Amino acid sequence: MLARDLMTKDVAAVAPETPLRDIARLLLDRGISAVPVVDATGAPIGIVSEGDLIGRSDSDRLARRDWWLAIAAGAEGPELFARADAEKLCARDVMTAPVVSVSETTEAAEIARLLSAYHIKRVPVLRDGRITGIVSRADLLRALAAAPAPATAPSGAGPLPSLIGKTLSALDQRFLHGHEASASSSAPTPQARAEGGVSVADFRALIADHERALMRATEAKQEEVARQRRDTVRALIDQHIADAGWKSILQRAREAAAAGEKELEVLRFPSTLCEDGGRAINAPLPDWPKTLRGEAAEIYLRWERELKPRGFHLSARVLDFPGGKPGDIGLFLVWGE
């Protein structure tokens, strides 16, 4: 069974600037325990749950319990928000980020593993980077209860061909045909081939043809690079860190330390994998981890839970700047001084 078979499709979402009171009312009205936070493109950048509103520590719960109960009872008045400071806070201030997400074709067993591995209760389901649904533990339990027999894993057909990839391939073919036609049209005319028929204009036309060919080749190369980056981003969004992959990272880190290294590049990825195109990492801003998506987000969450308490650091930096903009980004596990 796949995510698209399990997911709740009627997903409520909020903007980063949504006030906490509006979020609390939305959760109560919809009878849900969390809501994704999306940017202007519909891509998830965080999740706000009851725990984020009420707080998870005892002091947080005591501070916000009265506010939550008053909201549930329909209370109004400025004194309510003065106590909880809710008037000043919005989704961006309390949301949990980065977000672990899945695609519509992610299998139920993998979703269950992700919920367990990252101690989360739900994952957004994405199509082309936008939320199309959400799968919670309750959805998995309902599917399990309704299943007449244990589900078996599909035979493993590969991903569907990319529409963007097909379009770019067609453009490449048109470019090749156009280039051949251009090359044919630039052939010397009978008059030019005749003895003494050459002129400065003919030579300048040859130069112009050469420059156009170089421009087309450059554009084709840029399109191919862009296509590869889009394919890489799609793969990284759908790629999840299994226990074996995490152990492999730790083994590589141990080997690097034994060789005298102080850090290890655990992942290199295009800046477009970040929801802001890598700007927060380039700045750098303290909340850069919130911009991570896909595999990069999962590595960060595994580090935060398992390695940060043991003294390891995780850093990110832009590795190149094609066209003056952030290109690839490296995620580094650091243990040196």
How would you characterize the overall build of this protein?
The strands form three sheets. Strands 3-4-5 form a three-stranded mixed beta sheet. A three-stranded antiparallel beta sheet has the order 6-8-7. A two-stranded antiparallel sheet has the order 1-2. The two termini are 47 Å apart. The protein has 14 helices and eight strands. It has three domains: 3-146, Roll (CBS-domain); 163-238; 243-334, no CATH class. The radius of gyration is 27 Å and the shape is globular. The model is unreliable at 77-84, 153-172, 178-187 and 190-195 (pLDDT under 50). Helix 4 packs antiparallel against helix 5 and helix 9 packs antiparallel against helix 11 (200-238). The chain has 337 residues and is α+β, with helices and mostly antiparallel strands.
